Amino acid sequence: VLAGEGVPKCACGGVIKPDVVLYGEMLDEEVVAGAVGAMASADLLIIGGTSLAVYPAAGLLDYFGGGKLVLINRQPTQRDSRADLVITDNIAEVFEKIIV
User: Fold this and answer.
1) Would you say 62 and 86 are in contact if contact means Cβ atoms under 8 Å apart?
2) Per residue in 3-46, pLDDT tens?
């Protein structure tokens, strides 16, 4: 893959892509259901590195009913008023300071 050019292809002719959801692709329904269940039962939710502006993923926050919400993002988000703690900074730098 690294030595190739363009879109990597399998020997069978199929496209090789990472196990991620790319922009415009549908989310796996089982994964979404699992995320909704986990968020609904969580006591603390930390969201980082996202503007919370791209749906449907941004809408998952609506399922959080727990006690504390922490948002970490470089720029303010539309959901900052809902958070118990807002950290407006680079997420990598924040975690470097936390994990010592």
Assistant:
1) no
2) 878 888 888 988 888 788 877 888 889 999 999 999 999 999 99
pTM comes to 0.75
For the record, the structure tokens of 86 come out as 């807002």
Long-range contacts of 35-43 (CB under 8 A, 24+ apart): 35/60, 35/63, 36/60, 36/63, 39/63, 39/64, 39/66, 40/64, 40/65, 41/66, 42/66, 43/67, 43/68
The token pair that represents 74 in the structure block:
């470089």
Q: Is 23 helix (H, G, I), strand (E, B) or coil?
A: coil
Q: Which amino acid appears at position 29 of this protein?
A: E
- Both tokens of 40, joined, read 């609904």
46 bridge partner residues: 70
For the stretch 53-93, pLDDT in tens is 988 878 999 999 888 999 999 999 999 999 999 999 999 99
